[in-house]
C-alpha cells in the first residue's frame, strides 16, 4: 500500500516508477502463491490494515473469505465483552500474568478490528460485539498488557493506549456517540506520559521519543529511558484520527464548548503526532545497507538496537500529517454505507438513490463497495459504468454480490474528483 502511495506522490519520476514496479512484482507474486485474499494480510505491519485492494484492485476476491476471520474474533469473545490473557506456552512466560485475566491490552486490539470492520462494511454483528468490548474496557483506567509475548501484562503500556484510542475512535466514526469520543480522548491522554517532551541539544531524536512500557521484559531488561518508537507510532496514528474527529466535532456543534472534557485541543494532538513522527525520522538510518529502516529500540538516543524495522509506521504518520492518509474512507446515510480507497464527499440521498463526489489520484481507478440497496445503475460524471456478471479484478465497472449484498465498483478518475450517482430505480 505504501509503495503504491509513493508511486503516486513522489516528486522523483525514477522513484515513482521503481515503486510501481515493486508493487506489481509483490502483488503478482502474492496472488500467485496464495490467491487474492492475501492482499488483506497484515503480516509485518503494525498499523496498515486491509487497505491494499481498495487502492490496487481485486477487492471482491480479496474480501471473499474475510468475514470468517471477523466471526472468529467474535466467537473468541467472552459474554461480558472481554478477551482473556493467554500467555505463551513456555516456562518463563508464566510469570508475566495470570491466564484467564483481562486487561486493556488483551481487548483493545480485537475491539479496534471489530469496530473498523463494522465502520467499513456496516456489519451490525461486528459493531455489536465491538461495542460490548468497549463497554467492558471502560472498567480499566490504566493502559496495560498489549505486549504479553515478553512484557508483564500489568505494567503500563503505550501500545494498549494506542489500540484503545483506535477502537473508541472507530466507534465514534460509526455512531457519533460522544461517549466513545470521550473514551478515545481519555486513552490518548494516558499515552502522553510515555513521550519525551524535552530534548538535549545534541540528541534531536529525543523530543517525541516514546517509551514502550513503564517496566521490563521478563523482569530482566528494563525499558525505562529506552524508546521503542514503533509503539509510539502506532499510538500517534490513532491520535491523528482522533484529532480530525475532535476538529469536526467542534465544528458540528452550535457552541464552541464541548460536552466532554478536553485538556488538549485538536491542534495539540496533531503536534503530538508530529513530535513522535519526527523523532522516528531522526531514528532512521540515513545511508548504508539499512538506509530508511529504524531500530526496534534505541539506547542513550545514540545506539540503534536490532531488529531494524521497515518504515511503515513512520510513513503512515508522515503521509497523514501531509494530508494523504492511506486509510480506507467511509461515508454513510442511515443504512447505506460506502467504503473506498478514494475520499467520499457530499454523500446525499436523491429521489432515485444516492450521489457523492469521489476524490482520488488523477489517472488511476479507485475501488470500493456499498451496502444498503441493490443498484440498477452506477454513473460516473453522467456516464454509465458497465455492470459485470463476475467479480471485477482491476477493470472499470460494477458487480452485485448477491450473497453479501454488496455492490462493488471500480471508478475511473480522468480527473482527481468525479461525480458518482448510484440509482436503485
Mean pLDDT figure: 95
Strand order of the largest sheet: 5-6-9-13-12
Helix content: 25-40%
Largest sheet: 5 strands, antiparallel
Q: How would the global form be characterised?
A: globular
Structural class: alpha+beta
Give the helix/strand layout.
Elements: H1 2-9, H2 13-34, H3 52-56, H4 59-63, H5 66-75, H6 104-121, H7 124-137, H8 158-175, H9 178-191, E1 216-217, E2 221-222, H10 229-252, H11 266-283, E3 294-299, E4 303-309, H12 312-321, E5 329-333, E6 336-340, E7 343-349, E8 353-359, E9 365-371, E10 377-380, E11 383-384, E12 397-401, E13 406-412, E14 417-423
Antiparallel strand pairs: 1-2, 3-4, 5-6, 6-9, 7-8, 8-14, 9-13, 10-11, 10-14, 12-13
Written description of the protein model:
There is one protein chain. The chain has 12 helices and 14 strands. It is an alpha+beta fold and 425 residues long. Helix 6 packs parallel to helix 8, helix 8 packs antiparallel against helix 9 (178-191) and helix 8 (158-175) runs parallel beside helix 10 (229-252). The radius of gyration is 22 Å and the shape is globular.
In a few lines, what is going on in this structure?
This protein is α+β, with helices and mostly antiparallel strands and 425 residues long. The protein has helices at 2-9, 13-34, 52-56, 59-63, 66-75, 104-121, 124-137, 158-175, 178-191, 229-252, 266-283, 312-321; strands at residues 216-217, 221-222, 294-299, 303-309, 329-333, 336-340, 343-349, 353-359, 365-371, 377-380, 383-384, 397-401, 406-412, 417-423. The strands form four sheets. It has a five-stranded antiparallel β-sheet. It has a five-stranded antiparallel β-sheet with strand order 7-8-14-10-11, with no helix packed on it.
